[in-house]
Recover the amino acids of this structure.
């Protein structure tokens, strides 16, 4: 099953597409910009989808344009997601823009500090393999 969700505010348009894959939920977010508000909104939608579908693993592909969140914003995001249910979900995050990887890895650290099982990958196939077979 595939579902699409979009941001409600036309000034901050984004689109989130879900696919039920064999062993995990796939979520691809796309849009013309990125911000803490957008990132928080789409992560809350991912949390809701995981709860509704009973997903234990999710692969998130970031196709938003613009710069990633700052270290401080990642820390805020991680705290905002505590209690969302994502603490029980194994999360692989695919960042296809190599220039953003270093910044996004701070997000991985912030999420892990709050108890989430999340890893950042530059390659979607590696993310999928980690979800299916890798160690936390």
């Amino acid at each position: 099953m595939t579902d699409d969700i979009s941001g409600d505010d036309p000034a901050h348009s984004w689109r989130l597409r879900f696919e039920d894959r064999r062993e995990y939920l796939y979520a691809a977010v796309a849009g013309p910009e990125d911000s803490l508000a957008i990132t928080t909104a789409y992560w809350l939608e991912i949390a809701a989808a995981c709860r509704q579908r009973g997903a234990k693993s999710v692969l998130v592909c970031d196709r938003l344009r613009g710069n990633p969140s700052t270290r401080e914003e990642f820390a805020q995001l991680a705290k905002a997601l505590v209690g969302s249910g994502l603490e029980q979900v194994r999360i692989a995050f695919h960042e296809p823009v190599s220039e953003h990887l270093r910044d996004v890895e701070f997000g991985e650290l912030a999420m892990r500090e709050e108890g989430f099982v999340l890893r950042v990958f530059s390659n979607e196939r590696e993310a999928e393999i980690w979800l299916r077979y890798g160690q936390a």
In short: The longest strand covers residues 57-64. The chain has four helices and six strands. Residues 2-133 form a domain with the Transcription Regulator spoIIAA fold (CATH 3.30.750.24). The beta strands are 2-6, 15-20, 25-31, 57-64, 90-94, 117-121.
